[in-house]
Amino acid sequence: MSNEKGFHMTPEDFRHYGRAVVDWIADYYERIESFPVLSQVQPGQIRGSLPPSPPLHGEAFENILQDMETLILPGVTHWQSPNFFAFFPANASGPAILGELLSAGLGIQGMLWATSPACTELETHVLDWLVDMLDLPSKFKSTGSGGGVIQDSASSASLCALLAARERATDFGSNQHGCDGRLVAYASTQAHSSIEKAVKIAGLGRQNLRLIEVDNRFALRPDALARQIEQDRHAGLIPCFVCATVGTTSSNAIDPLPEIGRICRNAGIWFHVDAAMSGTAALCPEYRYIHAGIGLADSYCFNPHKWMFTNFDCDCFYVADRGSLIKTLSVLPEYLRNKATESGAVIDYRDWHIPLGRRFRSLKLWFVIRYYGIEGLRFHIRRHVELAQDFARWVEESHRFEIAAPAPLNLVCFRHRGGDEINRKLLDRINRSGKLYLTHTTLNDRITLRLCVGQTHTEERHMQRARKTIEEIAAALE
Amino acid sequence: MSNEKGFHMTPEDFRHYGRAVVDWIADYYERIESFPVLSQVQPGQIRGSLPPSPPLHGEAFENILQDMETLILPGVTHWQSPNFFAFFPANASGPAILGELLSAGLGIQGMLWATSPACTELETHVLDWLVDMLDLPSKFKSTGSGGGVIQDSASSASLCALLAARERATDFGSNQHGCDGRLVAYASTQAHSSIEKAVKIAGLGRQNLRLIEVDNRFALRPDALARQIEQDRHAGLIPCFVCATVGTTSSNAIDPLPEIGRICRNAGIWFHVDAAMSGTAALCPEYRYIHAGIGLADSYCFNPHKWMFTNFDCDCFYVADRGSLIKTLSVLPEYLRNKATESGAVIDYRDWHIPLGRRFRSLKLWFVIRYYGIEGLRFHIRRHVELAQDFARWVEESHRFEIAAPAPLNLVCFRHRGGDEINRKLLDRINRSGKLYLTHTTLNDRITLRLCVGQTHTEERHMQRARKTIEEIAAALE
């Protein structure tokens, strides 16, 4: 690979191999339905096919690209397959992939405004756009006291919300003093596991997380929350953080934000709303009811990388009072000081999340919003909900299966009426068939299958095939 | 943009626009020296050029790509310019960019082994390769009790190390109880600001971070560390974490790992080593002395995204005892349970860092290592050190400038002999010239300029021009 510039790829080679990679990706999407959705390899199989030692001398790019086919693809679970109905969609799209490519090509760091003003200002601008697009409260806009920032994931966003809450509750003065075991956080039993992870990371201690019981729709019970907060206060503890979920991971339950918000407001507790997957639905006016009460929230996040055609990572995290977040996370050493920061006229996003460095992630989001337009995004979101609702109706009309939870949007929780054993076997055989990929959860202590619609290219024919496969495998098990 | 598949980009369009973006990037690199390295825009200027509202209808991709030129580039600070000598290099390369593109195209999630076995196994394999490539202790390999994982940044890696240390020191039992104000962490006054950020996040409290004094080479003084630990113990506190730096941000100082490691070993304190930029130098046997004593470390990180031609984000974080890390961060809800995890035969990287979701980041690292080969990487690292050492000699021989700190590798700290005022002006004028970009720090309370060599395409001619520009601007100021 050596040439007059050492071992670097020449511009001509970059053009040549870049086209080859673009074509490889286009080809991949054209044949994606030919692969089993869930990778069928055994533990260690991929690793066993790799050379034990790194190469001393450079290899031809052609060989490396060829190995994508022979060594990597067998170990890939095809998240972009239209037959992927597991977890959450993580749906990518052409404009998002090309936005990510441009971000990698520019190779800039957006840790400070000064280190690339466009990286900061485009992010601020697009996140303000999204406040309007989802009809969120204007307090989340950067033009007021709040603002939005791209985080890698809702896990990190929830952690940052909790840190700001911890800071506000204790007035540590930039965390001068550590936790003292008295701070308490709240979420429902159905909240995402990242809340427990955040509580552990932030040093509150797992015992100071209260998982509040849910109602028969798997939504947090405000009366139980209020009671628990009262008990904790009496015990001398300091309730500091409540996380409500709009669209829980297990069943897409929507916690009652107005009631929870009022409890938090009255008790002076930080109110965070996690709408990781479902928030995207609010692009459509008819689904905006999911955010009723959001005006009471101190912070909010949703993930365009889950259901808005933007490849991972892209979580949009909003705070109503950016000062509290910045105060919590800011550290300013001499080597990061600069005139723009000192002027106070700019945002330095390094103070809005855990890492210091940051990619130009708003590019892909900007590309998606512009390429699809609001109407284009709505078209697909509505289509996904429609396909999921069709599936729910099919379950309801089936003698074999039953609905396990309300299905307000694109996630259907269902189960075979025959009990846990057959549902476990059914899931295993469906996934081993390679024809589609589902995951499971437990609801009311019973194994439940989850079918989540939202892959970019999922159409009616994939849903038909999914129903047929599920039906056939179930029949064979009975 | 609407077609029979809705508003999605067609495969044909993806091929077409993908090539256009690849060409755009190749063109960008060919003309990168024509831009001012540091963006010259004013706060708000980029944002002011963007439309206030998001588009209702989709736009042509050609228009979006055109806006990269007209709206975005003026606000870009060109980190990939061969005249970029600020902060750290963040050097990208053709194979890394194309690896990132493939990762975006596959769009898979590597949170669990099962969600894409290749994502986990390639990462484990390549991180084991790097242990050999840097001649690190074999305890950091996954084949023993340890292992490596890709994190977004050294900030996150240090936080994870601190969390594992906190867990080990208190034996909370998976953080059952929170922090109680007695845990203490240690680093030198020259350690990266992310250590302070981590201490705040983890709830130890800023007051429980001890910044230990340094010697005349800006390296941590082991005697001062030992004394402080002793004092804290006597005060009833619990020393739990020491971070040593191999190549500090300000001046590239190398803390004495053998002495610090022995202190930690004797006191039962977690010993973390942060070699974010400089670790890459250990690819070359002649620079491996920087890691002397690393055998005593509990954890270690370095960033291929700083100096190893791999675009951000890619920090390699190693632990000697992976059990302690996993125990700290693991939360296993029903919806993430699966056979492979329960078999114990696989790694689930979600338990190795803060976020749950993760990109296929090992692809770009694998591409870089294979395309360059070990010899190719060594060639360029040696060249960068040589260019930096030439610059240091030029400073030493100059009557205007002086060296401000030892320059062991690719970072030269220097200053004009005329004092802070002229150095501040000099820095400002250099950066406003657009010809090169330097940043500053303070050493011994004096403003110091930092020139860091490591951009992918920096050659002798760029160094000559840098010297000439610095000299001319200084002369004009005198």
Quickly describe the structure.
2 copies of one chain form a homodimer. Chain A is an alpha/beta fold.
The H-and-E topology of chain A, N to C, reads as HHHHHEHEHEHEHEEHEHHHEEHEEH
Number of structurally distinct domains of chain A:
3
The number of E-state strands of chain A comes to 11
Question: Largest interface by residue count?
Answer: A-B, 169 and 168 residues
Number of helices of chain A: 15
* Strand arrangement, major sheet of chain A: 1-7-6-5-4-2-3
The percentage helix of chain A is 40-55%
Radius of gyration of chain A: 24 Å
**CATH superfamily placement of the largest domain in chain A:** Type I PLP-dependent aspartate aminotransferase-like (Major domain)
Query: Which CATH class of the largest domain in chain A is shown?
Result: Alpha Beta
Overall structural class of chain A, as computed from helix and strand content, comes to alpha/beta
Mean pLDDT across all residues of chain A, rounded?
95
**How large is the share of residues in beta strands of chain A?**
5-15%
Q: Stretches of chain A where pLDDT falls below 50 for ≥5 residues? A: none
The coarse overall form of chain A would be globular
The CATH topology of the largest domain in chain A comes to: Aspartate Aminotransferase, domain 2
Detailed description of the structure:
- The structure is a homodimer of 478-residue chains.
- Chain A is an alpha/beta fold and 478 residues long.
- Chain A folds into 3 domains: 1-30 and 39-74, dopa decarboxylase, N-terminal domain (Up-down Bundle); 108-358, Aspartate Aminotransferase, domain 2, CATH 3.40.640; 373-477, Aspartate Aminotransferase, domain 1 (Alpha-Beta Complex).
- Chain A has 15 helices and 11 strands.
- In chain A, strands 1-7-6-5-4-2-3 form a 7-stranded mixed beta sheet, sandwiched between helices. In chain A, strands 8-9-11-10 form a 4-stranded antiparallel beta sheet.
- In chain A, helix 5 (117-133) packs parallel to helix 13, helix 6 (154-170) packs across helix 7 and helix 6 packs across helix 11 (322-329).
- The first copy, chain A, starts with 10 loop residues before the first helix and ends with a helix.
- At the A-B interface, helix 1, helix 2, helix 3, helix 4 and helix 5 of A face helix 1, helix 2, helix 3, helix 4 and helix 5 of B.
